[in-house]
Fold each of these.
Amino acid sequence: MKEITSAEFEQEVLQGGKVVVDFYSSECAPCEALAPKFDAMAELYGEKIKFLKVFRQQNRELATELGVSSSPTLLFFDNGKKLPITMSGGIRKSEIQKQLDDMITAEEVLSIKSNQKQIVSEYDVAILGGGPAGLAAAIYLGQALIKTVLIDPALPGGYMGITHQVSNYPGFIEAQPGFMLAHYMGEQAKSSGIDLRVAVDITSVNLTKKEIVIDQLETIRAKKIIIATGTSPKSMNAKGEKELKGKGISYCATCDAKYYVDQEVIVIGSGNSAVEEALYITKFASKVKIVFRSEKLKANESALNILAKNDKIELIPFYEPRGFERKNGKMEVEFENLQTKQRTTLTADGVFVFIGLEANIADLGINLPAMNEWGSIITDEDMKTSIPDVYAIGDIISKKYRQITTAVADGTIAAMSISLEM
Ligand SMILES: Cc1cc2nc3c(=O)[nH]c(=O)nc-3n(C[C@H](O)[C@H](O)[C@H](O)COP(=O)(O)OP(=O)(O)OC[C@H]3O[C@@H](n4cnc5c(N)ncnc54)[C@H](O)[C@@H]3O)c2cc1C
């Protein structure tokens, strides 16, 4: 692997051949996550494609000239010409491999694949998921000198990493940007001596055999597995929903209601959480419209009684969202009336969605631990699941309150319980 400067760029990159260049920075978690994957790719494809690195902080002008504005960024060149694809952030090995395969012939791809060596790694504990639950477990296990690996298809942090401001995590007087908390916890986990496999593809998981295959290449065998894969809000299958998540569409009133003082808010959902969260939001907002598909709300009597006395709340039954747009700082939501099929647009300062959460279990294989009726994993007080030596922590487990503090508590309990057994 060669490191070049701006002065060498013309000679090394633009004179021809197939080249991939990694613009990296120091103190950059995604750059560290990419480095071993880039090295592995260089070893595999090195005879056909040249792999180069450029230290962005010392070659700023070149980076700017090439439109590189974040680290790491991968640029691909063929015969002196920059290819239209650019990769940055938490880059997965499979994404790079696909692009490299496109740059060479099918025969060359076959020959490279046949040279790919499978790796087997042995650990005491493998943690699936690097949100606050997984990171807390990792910190405790690392400090207890238990050989641990934390695996995540994204970068460490989970929901915390994408939360705008976290004001209720103890230890910080000022609200912290979620990505900073994620950074602190990730660095603390690393310094405790655990191994990280982040921005990877989870090829397969076998909870019974305690085997996890990542990037179709590395088999991780562990004595114990901790599931900390969290949840995802159920999708509304509406236009703009994905793009505006965290930028006008929120899924957590405790976290975000305080940003809507004297403003108008739409709440989507009809169950207990929609009603209870809407009531909570009225402490801040001047108006809360609860929009739901059915004729009546499905919350319990006591919540409905409190709601009936709250004059900030308006109920809008029989509507389902079809699209979200952000215009001039406001959210515009297109709804369809399920009875008349007519569409109407409501405008508000923010939208909160409480239509339920789904446990992230899709990649966990076929032998899953026992779950409750909502698909959350059932654990005992040590966070053990129904599968021997498999633990579950954080939002994925059956519990009432889902916060960073409760996730961290679950991670602590699982790690301490494991430490006693190892
Ligand atoms: C928008 C929003 C704002 C919030 N704000 C706050 C707040 O201000 N304060 C607060 O206390 N709580 C807040 N919460 C709640 C809090 O973020 C969660 O309770 C907490 O993050 C749960 O932690 P976790 O580790 O269980 O799961 P997550 O944070 O969801 O992390 C799960 C991790 O698992 C990874 N993963 C998924 N599938 C797999 C797989 N198959 N294999 C390996 N890894 C996998 C994911 O990439 C992710 O990194 C907020 C939640 C949301 C949605």
Amino acid sequence: MATTDTQNSGNRRMPEQARIARFLETWLGAPLHALEFVLQWILVKPTRWFWRHLDSWSYKLEGTLLRKILSSTLFPFTLVLSVFVGLKLVENGITSLTLVGFVLLPIIYGLYCAPFERLMPYSRKWLEGGNDTAVDIIMYFSGAFWSGISGLIVSALFIIGMVEALEPYGHNLWPDHWNPVIQVALFILIKDFFRYWFHRALHEIPALWRIHAAHHSVERLYWLNGIRAHPLEILSQAIFYAIPLALVQPSAEIALVAVILQLSIGIFQHSNIDLNLGWWEYIFSIGDNHRYHHYPDKGIGDSNYGGELIIYDILFGTFHNPRDERPHDNIGIGTAPDYPMTVAGLYIAPFLPNQKDVFRVEDNSDEEDTAAPGASTLQPAE
Ligand SMILES: [Zn+2]
Ligand SMILES: [Zn+2]
């Protein structure tokens, strides 16, 4: 922190902050910008033609019986299919083939989900973004990398001692003899209880909201951007989960099937597919539940925290999904409309005193100071 003049107002310090942030984003982030650019040209732009080609089919599908059937059955069908495929993958224990299948899964889910987004979109506005797909592809690998690192950190910290101490009790506690499908459901039920409180804390504690804002920076919802998370969120979540998961430790096979199921629910949480989910929206954190969660107005967005399940929101009073309403498609961070949208910017943003101003492109310095009504802001509560 600059020592010079403690009486400096926030305004006076801003240009300096802006310069440092811009410098870091531009130069330290240069390799990432290059990668975003390459991905955009190699992967995103060439496939755009194909996706746009499906649009004419989506108009033909509108109002048909086929679309009605698909919108009611796609989610439950995928759920059953995921459990079936997951159990098949671990049938003979965890082999290298299981792991290859597991690594390929997000790609398979993408190939499965992306055409449905185009054929029966919830919002046509959400069908195309700017550079967000390139950013999300990098964030996917970044997430995998930081998950690996978090495993090492959890091992290195004192937690490893506790995990070992709890392990004998954990194995006794876990009902290994139950039907595998029930074990998977139980694992998700326990894990999501912790996810609920962790996610709620990410929204309600200003310092944590800064970190989680990276996830809420998305301006549209589509199958891939559920994985967008700041490394600090990934690391702290892993540490937060370590003790409870050590206590109830199921077999690696059950955990793997549960992760596959979580991935498929996660994709439907963010997907831009217009589904008729009915009572599934009272069990799972999908569809409209998560669209409200991404509202720019935190008065509404601070709701529906469940990772896979919505039951804890119903139980603890944070469920928001009025039956007679259809969520609008203007999403993002109401308090920081100019939030950085590059990988480097997303990495840096939580450490800046005022993200809204620092990354603004035009220099209308003092003018606007608009926070959404009822919003807790990204700015420091100095
Ligand atoms: Zn959130
Ligand atoms: Zn989300």
